[in-house]
Write a structure and sequence with these properties.
By secondary structure, the protein is mainly beta. 4% of the residues lie in helices and 58% in strands. The protein has 1 helix and 10 strands, in the order ββαββββββββ. Strands 1-2-3-10-5-8 form a 6-stranded antiparallel sheet, with no helix packed on it. Strands 4-9-6-7 form a 4-stranded antiparallel sheet, with no helix packed on it. The longest helix is centred in the first third of the chain and has 4 residues.
Length: 114
Amino acid sequence: MTKATERTTLDVPLQAPGKGHLLKEGLLTEKELGQHCRMFSRVTLEPGSALGYHEHHGETETYYLLEGKGVYNDDGSLIPVEAGDVTFCEDGHGHGVENTGDTDLVFIALILKN
């Protein structure tokens, strides 16, 4: 278990092809993540920021959008997304997301190792 007051939020500058920065709050400790989960985090992208297209190998990644709206790059297909949507990037495929709204885009990111 982690308490909100115990968690830290990292301010991560985004490298090209991304832009801006993201705030990443780890929701579990490294021990709690175990051997099959690489990341379980609450991610915030400010308006105009983008997490650039990248591929996953040996793992999958899921986003559950909590707030805001944006455009999700699903292996080159651009898809509008908003709060309540869930995205899934399969092993060996790529994705990215850009905040195209005027409020923060907030989502839970889950990376599971194969």
